[in-house]
Fold this protein.
Amino acid sequence: MDSRIELIVDNLICYCNQRGLSDSCRSGNDPTIKVVLKKLGIKADSALAYLYQHIVGPFSNNGERQLPELLDVKSGVRNIASFSVELWENYSLPKTILAISEINTMTGLFYDTESDSVYQVEMDLEFPYFLNGEISPQWSNSAEFLVDFFGEESIAKI
């Protein structure tokens, strides 16, 4: 795993433990989460899978860009699975595209499970182009996305 992602996850775990939020941490080997990730098509060796195997979302953006909240894969009613089903049913996108943020906001985050890339889509302006495959991913892989999402300072804090 990318050492930057390991540091981000370690810092999130430390943050949760310092605040008595141990329920926000996962074992890293939870079979239930592995099943959910597999069902969604998120590859076990991706940075997103590593994050979700260790920490419960949703996650707020700490990076320089203003990004929507990153949903959890399983917890809560509003999660990646529920928004992805809505996306697949309403817009006929392939099941390799996941909604990793809420899709009823100004900006949506979408994850391509085949390429490990992440799209940032302005829903009012770019969504039709995204549906037609005319938008390039903002991040070529989920590790780069998570570094940008959580911010460089999240790597330095330990």
In short: The chain has one domain: 3-156. The radius of gyration is 15 Å. The helical segments are 3-18, 31-40, 47-54, 80-91, 127-131, 142-150, 153-156.
